[in-house]
Amino acid sequence: MVKVYVLIFEGLLKMKNIIVLGGGPCGLSAAWELSRCGLDVTVIEKDSKVGGLCITNEYRGFRFDLGGHRFISKNRELIESIRTMMGDELLTSMRKSVILLKDKTFDYPLSAKDIFLKMDPWMNLKAFTVYIIAAIFKIVFRRKDTSFEDWAVNRFGRVLYRLFFGPYTEKLWGISPKRISSDWAFQRISLLNLKEVLLHLFQLKKSTLRTHAREYFYPKKGIGQMFDNMSNEILKMGGKIILNATVLAINSHNKSVESISYIQHGMTKTINCDAVISTIPLPDLVKSFPNQLPREILDSVSALKFRSVKFLNILIDLPDISDNTWMYVSEDKYSMARIQEPKRRSPYNAPEGKTSLILEIPCDENDEVWNCPKESLLERCLADLKELGINIENKVIDYFTTSVIHGYPVYSLGYMFHKSKLLDFLNCYKNLITCGRQGTFRYIFMDTAMEMGIAAARNLMQVD
Ligand SMILES: Cc1cc2nc3c(=O)[nH]c(=O)nc-3n(C[C@H](O)[C@H](O)[C@H](O)COP(=O)(O)OP(=O)(O)OC[C@H]3O[C@@H](n4cnc5c(N)ncnc54)[C@H](O)[C@@H]3O)c2cc1C
Known about the structure:
The chain is globular. By secondary structure, the chain is of the alpha/beta class. Helix 5 crosses helix 6 and helix 11 crosses helix 14. The chain starts with a helix and ends with a helix. The protein folds into three domains: 2-50 and 225-300 and 411-461, 3-Layer(bba) Sandwich (FAD/NAD(P)-binding domain), CATH 3.50.50; 108-205, no CATH class; 306-409, Polyamine Oxidase, Chain A, domain 2 (Alpha-Beta Complex). It has 16 helices and 19 strands. The longest helix has 26 residues, at 148-173. The strands form five sheets. The chain has a seven-stranded mixed sheet, with helices on both faces. It has a five-stranded parallel sheet with strand order 9-2-1-13-19. Strand 3 and strand 4 (62-65) form a beta hairpin. Flavin-adenine dinucleotide binds at residues 21-27, 44-47, 52-54, 67, 69-70, 246-247, 279-281, 284, 309, 360, 406-407, 436-438, 444-447, 449.
């Protein structure tokens, strides 16, 4: 205890002004931790409100997250801090999610029992045989998992791959699963191998994987409420949050960052700093060093891509659509990858007797979907929903779209090489830490982003 106190005190003497770039879960958690330790912190956020991907938009009494978020963590300290901050405003909700495929509804996460019971006997026999062969080949020939396709085919066989994994993955990422690194699979697919499948089937093993978690925390007024409360606490403790401010340049001398320049309402401003915690996208951070960047660094900057997402938010004059929190849409003929019903997370997300849907449509910035007028998008999506058995054509009260550019870091083959190059470049700057989902180019959830922010703050203060 004494050691921690002394180190904080030494840290305080060294650090006068710490700047946090980005006001999403990671940046705010860093600023929250620094403020709680009495340090002077300024957050620079390009949006008009804080929360990053965890913003909730309110419209005509309805609330829409960017997609629909749930808070799950194994970190007791983090959970306790959030509980204390939210008080009665934090609900414990239960998830029910399914996969819609070929007029059938499969459990999510996928279960071998469900696949077996719902597919026709011929398909079952074919899938099971191919599945067993793939499992044996994987063990005997030690098949390598370079791409996502290798990973899934080696474990599940090509029949199940073509049904459940291939089309969905291509829709989500916008590139062939042959060009996606197998790294992504480890984070997203919950059935790992034949042994795991059998253990789950006979209920001999309880899953600790996040995808299997049914219970989760969710604020009454949408996920954004967590970060609105956090930013209020930061402000109360004396921290500053500058909104509508886009980072332009990181100004350094002798490999130490001295000030940050940003543009706000058309005006360029500069603030001095002793240290920086950045959570803005890794390529954007590197580009903000105005000194000449070597060619190879510029190549790595342009090699790292993000997949964008457009959300169609529909206000509906019906009490409910289904009891599912979300539904995956596997087939690539439908534009949406996921359908969410916000009311399933919190009853406060829709007025009494009404409900709403969020459709997540993966796209690239400035592609056909990105630029599609909302009227055409609605028309297309209502037709898709009807085919999927959700007919709401005469029940739409209103609708609007939202979008994010940096939805998912694209784990294309070779991404790790470019990411390492950029991290090595930044490593030379003694008083700069990059963290968070965008800042480390990692497919992480909000709890990990928050842990990273807190760890970065403690690292600056040299506290364990
Ligand atoms: C559709 C979808 C659903 C998700 N569902 C869940 C879920 O259910 N549970 C869960 O735990 N996680 C979920 N996630 C992941 C979660 O949103 C992220 O892990 C989390 O938001 C990461 O926080 P972050 O602060 O690292 O990044 P972000 O939230 O992206 O925040 C980065 C911030 O930096 C700002 N910024 C960027 N560039 C600049 C600049 N140049 N200058 C100033 N500011 C800048 C941005 O505006 C943003 O506010 C989901 C993600 C998506 C896309």
